[in-house]
Amino acid sequence: MMSTANEPPQAPPQTDAPAPQPPSGEASPPAKRQGYGAEAPHEYGLITPRFWHGMKPADWTQMLVKNRFALSPRGVFTTATILGAGVFHVAGGAAQSALNASRIRSVRLDAPPLFVLGHWRSGTTMLHELLIRDPRHTYPTTYECFCPHHFLVSEDWFTRLTPWLLPKTRPMDNVATGWERPQEDEFALCSMGLPSPYRTWAFPKNGPVDRDWLTLRGVSASDRQRWIAALQRFVKTIAVKRHGRMVLKSPPHTARIKALLEAFPDARFVHIARDPRLLFPSTVRLWRSLCDVQGVHRPLPQYDWIEPLVLDNLAEMYDAYGEDIGLIPEGRLVETTYERLVEDPKRELRAVYDGLDLGGFDAFEPNLDAYLGETSGYRTNRYEVPDAVERLVRERWGAYAERFGYA
To answer: What residue spans carry the region label Disordered (predicted)?
Structure first.
């Protein structure tokens, strides 16, 4: 028997590859796309920017060398465009430094940042989208995360000229894209040359990379400080361009609370959890989809490492989260769930505002109502999850389920 579930707003990636075998000797599920999704993926065009287009040539070349230049013909073309864009980043970065270095160093944030925490596909995108409707808040745009080296001198004109470069929706779901749309700051850190688990998607045939950078626990003290300095620099550069409380969302930050507090001691946090029975297939599809569209070699029918990695990542993430939340002062963390947020977004957001003492909810409410009206017809994805996989998820993610009320 197979359970079928709907994916609510922040839908998952999809692919035509058969489902992988569940790890740990469980019975094999019927052949399905890897990720258990029923819908077809949204493909990327040949010239659609990949995450790696934000890198300088030296950083991308280093990744090529590590992966022995294992490129498909299409990957050769993509690499040529990445290196070409990299020249633009070097020149633009020099211009931004010359014109704005002192302003970036001296700028003060209007308010402590607010970090949206939670595992991939747990509703972090939805929560982020809702929070940024407050006109007192700001956020990193997609362009700023792709071009952190020079967006102060290039964003206004480049984004007006090139909206056609981006697809209408993300490859894994029906969320709209655009240079002005909110984006994960993890991609900015990648573009700035920092290691990240996300680099796995460039050469997925070779399996997971940069695992220590998920929690920052296994990296050297100097690398940890380099990461903190890069995040601070990126946030301060946005603050030069726009006023407001910065709302930042990257799922790996869930495992980096200690480092985030070192970077921003007065930061606020809101964490969102979700039923692990949906979280698992949705995350598998996310990783599968991004391996296909972001990889620079020919996609494989399936990647045997994805399901074990997804299981391990959540365990590592919430080991770190459980150890570090005690470092957050009282009144600076609110926890919610995806199910409660979908049921009554305004109730949950009011609880977030009250719990974090953000103030101004009544003034924010009209913008929130307008956004909820605009997105009321969002189409969700569906999953077909074999019973054997559900049992495995209950076994491996039991602590998460218990911690957030899904047991």
So the answer is: 1-37
In this prediction, residue 32 carries a pLDDT of 47
What tokens does 6 get? Answer: 């709907």
Residue 34 lies in a domain: no
Interior/surface letters 306-317, b for 16+ CB within 10 angstroms, e for the rest: bbebbbbbbeeb
Q: Is 173 inside any structural domain?
A: yes
Phi and psi (nearest 5°) for 43?
-85, 155
Say how many domains are in the chain.
Answer: 1
How many CB atoms are closer than 10 A to CB 373? 9
The CATH number assigned to the domain holding 360 equals: 3.40.50.300
Interval 11-30 mean pLDDT: 39
Q: Is the pLDDT of residue 15 over 60?
A: no
Q: Band of the pLDDT at 11, cuts 50, 70, 90? A: very low
Task: Record the pTM.
Answer: 0.90
Phi-psi region of 216 (alpha: psi -120 to 50; beta: other; left: phi over 0): left
Q: Which residues pair with 33 in a beta bridge?
A: 18
pLDDT at 9 over 50: no
CA distances to 4, 47, 266, 325 from 26, rounded to whole Å, are 19, 41, 46, 34
SS3 call for 18: strand
Phi, psi for 264 (deg, rounded to 5) = -140, 85
- The domain of 192 spans 45-403
Identify whether 161 is part of a domain. yes
- In the structure, how many helices (H) and strands (E) does the chain have? 15, 7
Contacts of 205 (CB under 8 A, 6+ apart): 70, 295, 297, 300, 303
Residue 11 lies in a domain: no
13 pLDDT band, cuts 50/70/90, is very low
Burial of 325 from C-beta contacts in 10 A (0-12 / 13-18 / 19+): middle
CA dist., res. 38 & res. 5, Å (int): 10
Mean pLDDT of 187-198: 98
Q: Is 302 left (phi over 0), alpha (psi -120 to 50) or beta?
A: beta
